[in-house]
Structure formats: C-alpha cells, structure tokens
Amino acid sequence: MPEGLRERRKEEIRQELSKAAIRLFLEKGFEATTIDEIVAPLGVSRRTFFRHFPMKEDLVFVWYEDLTEGLVAECAARPASETAYQAVCGALRSLLHLYDVDPLWSKRMMKLTGETPGLIGKSLEKRVMWERALAAVVVDRLQEGPMRDHYARIIAGTAVNAFAVAAEAWFAEGANGDLRAIVDASLACAGAVGTAV
Description:
This protein is mostly helical. The protein folds into 2 domains: 3-54, Arc Repressor Mutant, subunit A (Orthogonal Bundle); 60-195, Tetracycline Repressor, domain 2. Helix content is 73%, strand content 0%. It is globular and about 55 Å long. The mean pLDDT is 90.
C-alpha cells in the first residue's frame, strides 16, 4: 500500500475508534466501557487499538488534537496590531462556533471530561499542548529578550486556562447562559490580573 494511502487509512481508523469510543462513553460511562467493546464492532484488534492510542483516555481528546492546527493558523492570522494576548484570545474565541454547531454534544462532553478523574488530568495535558502551540505563534509579537519564550508561554497559558474556566463556569450554570459573554469576561479578567495588584 502506498505511504499516502497507509497514512490516510491510519487516520481513518484513529477517527473511527475515537467516535465509537465517545458514543459508548456517553452511553455507558468511561469506566464501564472496555476496549474490547470499542474495537469489536469496528473489526479492529486490541493490538491495532494500542498502535493508535496508548491509553483509553486518549480516545476522548482526538478532537482536541485535531483543532490545534486550525487554532494555530487562526492565531497566526490575527492582525499585527494586536498584542500577543489579544491574538491568543481572538484565536480561542474562534472555537465558540463549535458550541453552536452541537450544543448538546458540547454539554455531554463537558460532563464526561469534568466528572471522570482520568479525563480531568488528560484535559489539563491537552491545555498545555495548546499553550505551547500558541506560544510558538505569538512569541514574535514580543520584544526581544532572554525571557521572551517564557513570557509567550505565560501569555498563551493564561488565555487557554481562562477560556477553559469560562467553559466550565458556563456548564456549571446549566449550559444555558451566554457563553460568549462568559468567555469575554474571563479573558478580560485574566488579562487584567497583572495590572490589578
């Protein structure tokens, strides 16, 4: 099989496994779902499963990883007049349309990831992935200096975590409030923290 086709098939299997797993997790719960239950309907072996996913928890965050490239591109395309923090915030706001597309799925996924201990840790790991990816984009907006990379990580991490906390607050309030307003308020609060001392 040509390399391109092999890679495409590999990605298809990865996506199929993730979608099948999430359906089962939402239906039965994360802990109650076994790997055998995930792979059997797809005709995939456990060995194939572990070639794609080191842990069961990784199945839940394929979408998170898939969004990274678009998020980075959105951040890079932000106006040059914006500060590094404004650029990261603008990129993160672009994700809000996903909550509009399927609000029920968003609510169910937040419940799953927020109430499963192993998924909470994995979620934090993925936030760090976004932090690093976004920091690499906005570092050039900062002045030259020995701490520039460090500051870029702090800026990106602050915005990513403020966005996540806003989504969690929205969910905790019944997921019926104005998510955009909560995100805007959270990002503004985080951006003002350094000046509020």
